[in-house]
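Minutes, project check-in

Agenda point 3 was the complex the collaborators sent over. CS summarized: two entities, 683 residues total, and the question is how they sit relative to each other. Sequences were read into the notes so everyone works from the same version.
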Amino acid sequence: MKTVLLAPLDPVHDNAIKLLRRKLEDAGYTAVSMPPGTTEDEVVEKALTLHPDAILVSRTLGYKVAETLGRLVDLAEAAGLREKTRLGVGGMAITREVGAELGFDATFAGDLNMADVFAFIEGKALQAEASKLPTVAREKPSVVEGYTYTFKDKKIEALLDQITTQILSFVSDKTSDGIERARLREEMLDQPAGSPVLTQLRARYIALCDEETAAFYNNGKLPSGVRWLGAEEVARIPEVIETTLAPHEPLQHAGKRPYIFVQYGTGCPVMDIMHIKTAEAWGADGILHFDPSWGAQREGLLEGCLTHEHDGTILTYDNLNLIHQYKDPATMWNVRGHRGLNTAETQILGARAGADLFKINIPYGGTAGGTDPERLTVDGVFSLRLAAKYGLPFDIPGNDELSGVPPHKTFAGILIMMMLGLKLGGQPIPKPLLCYSPYMQIYGYMDDNMVDMNTAKLAVWREIVDTPIWPGEPVGFMTHTPDRVQSAMTTAAHVALAATLGVDAITMASSDEAYSKGPISAPARVDSLRAVRDLLRFMGSAKFLPTPKASDLLEQIHRGITETLQTIADRGDFTASIYEGHLGSVDDGLYPGRTGRGTVRTLK
Amino acid sequence: MSEALDRIVDALDIETYFYCKSEEEARDLAEALIAELRLPHGDIVFLEHRGWGARVRIRTYIHRPGDHYRWMDKKEEAK
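CS then shared the predicted structure for the full assembly.
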């Protein structure tokens, strides 16, 4: 095995030398290290007696760098060492340019890459390309794996059974234009372009659309601000992506979970792809597609590759396909359709384009999401059937808390969705929102700290049911400011808290979360991912220590969930319960949605 | 536009610290800086005044979603 001489040409700093020595010895090399303050002459003198295969010197301090290192190179040359001994340099003060200028055989700048060090010692060319390879072979994980969905709280289970039996009975003889369009879209996707059958199906589809969507199909009229994505723009993506490939380094430090998700939806699929590749490069495990809010309030979806200069990327099969084509195959992909008039069709498009997860929440979509509760109940149950049919887990966001709803009411709604999904053969994932919501602010539940309440909001799920937990959406909602350091820090704190409480996945924000006057920027994504990486590293397997108050809050939330479900079960009508505010009232700040009211039809 | 600016994926942020008496003065200075640097549609993302100065971040979008992205152009075309 080869011998390596390690020397810090620095009066104090020799940490890198110590680290190198250990790693080289672990790899079977003979590593001889010299102390801090070693001079150039001493290095050469030692080398002449040791006859090492390689000499590695380090320099941390930034003064006299060229003078010191240049003299070492000259002395090594004069002593005839360089014929048989390779000379390498590294350290904080060293750049590749300086190392090359001074005549070293190799320069190690930035993070220590042992593969490069080994290659240098062995006399091979540095594996510049190796750094482009993933440092960890990625496999697409499953958020739901390992959970049985067994209810530990039997009273809640019984109430949920009663409530969901009523819901399934209610929807059993009902349909809507949204459901019929979804059925047609499924058939349309099986037809070749230009076929007469496709033309007929599309005509039936258009008949079920609103005026503006129909105008797109009939007259080619694009919604305001929307344009076609040029073929040339699409064709150039591969070249751009090729130059931006980067290794995937997991964000997690202790264990493989939680999987970290980020939301995208810049408005343009090409920009989305760049943001997705950025997030992947900085360690994200999954992505969520966000569509424009107007897309949820219209009857019918558009077709083709479309872009616009507003928030949310337009939901079309072609846009989804384009995005899917460029995301890493191991990156989990959630296409949301939880809140609008196209919820059912969104599941069809998502599944056909390769989505791994759906997002469906009737109580949220039927209130804060703006859609009529009756309509979304009918469309939502149909969508749950689709999720089960496609074998795709669906998550249930609890973002109605942002309107002021207390967590126990939001969680009751999430539990109803869970039971509905389970009865229909699905795999639900509750998404308790970790946030500084109006309810917390008004009632002072977070006046002292944000650990107790958030701990209680996660722990209550473990008391009720054996389920995966995925805090979102994103965590830290309403704690962010436009200060990017503060924003990234508060995101990282929430991620770390949730991670140490054993959740399975987390949706996190960029540091632009609180900036409302422009689209989220690529560096803002990196800010937060970078902060998360370091805080997960900081925490490791350690835990937060909540105060005793967390236990009181846990009990309070659990009791509130039971009481809310009891009220809804007693009412005997789920949609009426939403209208009447049992899952969030006007006093809480929540109003029933109105879009699509009166559009549910009873089947003859 | 320079090649370096063309390569900016979306936003260009400038962070600095102004010597100033108040938040209002900091805002005026930030707006003046946007004008002096000729940042198109420049915006103050963040501004916080404490004591004798203010921490400020200003932003302009070199490329907005839906634009023609010059970073996608081939190098010779971008010049």
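Noted in discussion: The first helix of chain B runs from residue 3 to 6.
Follow-up: revisit at the next meeting once the mutant set is ready.
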